[in-house]
Amino acid sequence: MPKDILVVEDEPDIRRLVVLHLEREGFRCRTASNGADALREAKRAVPDLVVLDLMLPAIDGLEVCRRLRGDAGTAGVPIIMLTAKSGEVDRVVGLEVGADDYVVKPFSPTELVARVRAVLRRARPAPEARVLSAGPLALDPARHIVTLHGRPLDLTPKEFDLLAALLEAAGRVLSREHLLNSVWGYARADEIESRTVDVHIRRLRAKLGDVGSRITTVKSVGYRFEPE
Ligand code: CA
């Protein structure tokens, strides 16, 4: 599916130029020529990325950016600011309000397209990279961090993978064989190897404190992370 880009620019020539180059590269574009239209358009259907001019009549680009960031529905949408001012302050402010990148006018359309691609690449979370959470527990696969009540937990790599598998299963029971296969890479599990899982689960429970009791043993099957 082509990526849906919302181009917000009040100058018709620049708007047309940006759209022309983005569409030529396979992006689908929607346009808005002022802040109010941009916000309405972004809310109606959340775009994959917003190219946002800083100097807009009435509601300016910074305010549009703030409002997009302040709305849960659009808070995560990548934003590239277009600015005519090259002063450091504007750049910093642009990034401070949450823009992902900026391009200074006059810009080459090729450069803008390259920035759009780069920002989209950064923004796209790998399917397995989303943060898994359960109450006070959060596991971030991309950063390889587990936190409990906001504090980092010191887990071994196996404990980390085991917890990730349990959280990903979202309440389904995982057999020892499944865990041995997915976490340890064993094709078949014998008695001793199955006990390896039990030992790691025990250690993991201890490290998880009050959340540890949510890893329950399903007799003669395996383990489950109890949903809330
Ligand atoms: Ca403008």
| Global morphology | elongated
Q: Low-confidence runs (pLDDT<50, min 5 residues)?
A: none
The major β-sheet equals: 5 strands, parallel
> Under the CATH scheme, which architecture of the largest domain would be assigned?
3-Layer(aba) Sandwich
Q: Beta-strand level of the residues, as a percent range? A: 15-25%
Roughly what percent helix?
Answer: 40-55%
Distance between the termini: 36 Å
Number of helical segments with 4 or more residues? 8
Task: Let me know the average pLDDT.
Answer: 87
Number of DSSP strand runs:
12
- Could you give me the name of the CATH homologous superfamily of the largest domain? Response regulator
Major sheet: order of its strands?
A: 2-1-3-4-5
List the secondary-structure elements in sequence, H or E. Answer: EHEHEHEHEHEEEEHEHHEE
CATH topology of the largest domain: Rossmann fold
What small molecules does the structure contain?
A: calcium ion
Taking Cα atoms only, what radius of gyration do you get, to the nearest Å?
A: 24 Å
- For the record, the count of structural domains works out to 2
What's the CATH C level of the largest domain? Answer: Alpha Beta
* Structural class determined from secondary elements: alpha/beta
